[in-house]
From TrEMBL, chains A, B, C, D:
<dbReference type="GO" id="GO:0005819">
    <property type="term" value="C:spindle"/>
</dbReference>
<dbReference type="GO" id="GO:0005739">
    <property type="term" value="C:mitochondrion"/>
</dbReference>
<protein>
    <recommendedName>
        <fullName>Acyl-coenzyme A thioesterase 13</fullName>
    </recommendedName>
</protein>
<dbReference type="InterPro" id="IPR003736">
    <property type="entry name" value="PAAI_dom"/>
</dbReference>
<dbReference type="InterPro" id="IPR006683">
    <property type="entry name" value="Thioestr_dom"/>
</dbReference>
<dbReference type="Pfam" id="PF03061">
    <property type="entry name" value="4HBT"/>
</dbReference>
<keyword id="KW-0443">Lipid metabolism</keyword>
<keyword id="KW-0963">Cytoplasm</keyword>
<comment type="similarity">
    <text>Belongs to the thioesterase PaaI family.</text>
</comment>
<feature type="domain" description="Thioesterase">
    <location>
        <begin position="51"/>
        <end position="125"/>
    </location>
</feature>
<dbReference type="GO" id="GO:0005829">
    <property type="term" value="C:cytosol"/>
</dbReference>
<dbReference type="GO" id="GO:0005634">
    <property type="term" value="C:nucleus"/>
</dbReference>
<keyword id="KW-0496">Mitochondrion</keyword>
<comment type="subunit">
    <text>Homotetramer. Interacts with PCTP.</text>
</comment>
<keyword id="KW-0206">Cytoskeleton</keyword>
<dbReference type="GO" id="GO:0006629">
    <property type="term" value="P:lipid metabolic process"/>
</dbReference>
<dbReference type="InterPro" id="IPR039298">
    <property type="entry name" value="ACOT13"/>
</dbReference>
Length: 143, 143, 143, 143
């Protein structure tokens, strides 16, 4: 699957450069293609909140970035611009735990794309969080 | 207003420590108290996305952190645990631009607290984003 | 303000016709114009849930319809098509209570419009719910 | 599966009574049990918006009601109270079309339950909408 190695290279490039994407440096791309992208992360102190668990802002950033990677593997091959994003936090993920971030493209229209992301504990499959992300992919620069 | 200096000290403490809150290092607390918190940020390369604007994950983290600071200035004085968060992205904020993050407590019940956050351009008051954040503040450890 | 009477007429027309908008028959348009719309509703048994309070689906419909009325009073004068909507439920509204639905246009771009809705108890101003609504207003028929 | 007939009876009871749940009168319960509930609806003029498609408020009400039915088939057997709900609208559903509403319990904690709902076209499985619903199921009367 060529998409997986492509997204993997992209992620390496993004997280070496300066910018907020460097917070994704621990993310491992497991598979990518056909509008889907699956990544894994071992939660470390760099992603923790004051309680020693995955920070809610980091969870939101995972929803944003992994769904964007999924979108880039559709026929449109665009990153788009965020319109709406929501996250439901169901269970904490302590430092040291392994989580799976599974993003799917629900629909890719001419102007808007719709993506869904499940974040689960690798150990037992229970939900850490679920998010949804709507992106503008129209040709115009302005929404 | 004693709350402002308290939240300011807390923010300094949080961003010096290891953890994801260090991404907030550029945040300036303007005022805090009575369930409200106003902060400012000059967008730098550290918070940018690939397009040179404020990263959507950083925007989400601002909604999370500044609303939590607002919640800590209510009578309950708790940080709580995130339940639901949503963000609507309306306009980009380029590197170098000044943004205002204005968080309000809409309601603080016995088990749940509800917060709203406006992120605007300081120059003209136009919206960058708006978010809402529901937090669990019950006494039980588990949601 | 001519917009108020226009939106009032529109609402009367909509709720007489067949269609789901007939659930809005009790809605009173207080004012409308410049991207804003304020309505009032006395909760009756027609809008109640099994617990004798305003039904969550009716609350969501109020967010949808009143924000759309607000959008129709902008320069664009369009109803648009829903993209994303969210509602945070803070407090019940019993049958007999009066509620205020206050919708504002946060931003009206070329393709997307962003609206926010506060639903409060008329008696004391406390929040029943808050919602946000993103609508597609582009010229193309398909999102 | 006894749960299916139980939820079917409940739905019949709810939609005969006075109250907003009567808008669900066309809903057919296909299966229910173990925290899941699948229903079908043929869109009629009663559920339509001004454009002759499923009304966004009705879509939101479907997310609300069918996810609540799913929750009632968990071990907790409670209806709960809405905390947060979001809906992403992906594609219209014209009058006459058949739609499937598929609700799942993502997690049922001691105080909060988290549900997800897919609404798809029966003909081709494409998404009409996707929603998420957080409900308070704690023993206290107040959130």
């Amino acid at each position: 699957m060529p998409s997986t190695s492509l997204v993997r290279q992209l992620m390496q490039f993004m997280t070496k450069e300066r910018g907020f994407d460097t917070v994704m440096k621990g993310l491992r791309v497991v598979s990518a293609g056909n509008g889907n992208c699956v990544c894994e992360l071992t939660v470390t102190e760099d992603e923790q909140n004051r309680g020693g668990s995955l920070h809610g802002g980091m969870t939101a950033t995972l929803v944003d970035v992994v769904s964007t990677c999924a979108l880039m593997t559709t026929e449109r091959q665009v990153a788009g611009v965020s319109v709406d994003m929501n996250i439901t936090y169901m269970k904490g993920a302590k430092v040291g735990s392994e989580i799976v971030i599974d993003a799917k493209t629900l629909r890719c229209g001419s102007t808007l794309a719709f993506l869904s992301v499940d974040i689960t504990h690798k150990a037992d499959g229970t939900f850490v969080a679920q998010g949804r992300h709507t992106k503008f992919i129209g040709s115009k620069s302005s929404k």
